[in-house]
Amino acid sequence: MEGIAVITVPNDCSNIQKEALERGHIDKNFWVVPPDHISFFDNEDLANIACETVWHVMDLLGDFPIDWYLYHLGFNYVSNPSVGKDAHWARVQLELLFSKSQLKM
Known about the structure:
The protein has helices at 15-22, 43-52, 84-100. By secondary structure, it is mainly α. It has one domain (15-100). The protein is globular, with a radius of gyration of 16 Å. The relative contact order is 0.14.
């Protein structure tokens, strides 16, 4: 049997998040949310899992890194949860814009 699987995982415990914590943009490891988010993957981990389960990795890519907003007071959705919806909506609009253009993220 052949097919293609698209697998999406959160970019939790990323370098962007760790740096935001170290620089004081956030005050907690908000990405650690047992029992929902307890496993973290990077590109190498995902490729290894695919290989171990007999899948061939055709491509790995990241989508819009919403955690950049942690560095902007007006969109820091961790320190100010009330802007979370606006940060999410801005990310959605940018992803739609990128998908309509020749730009690749």
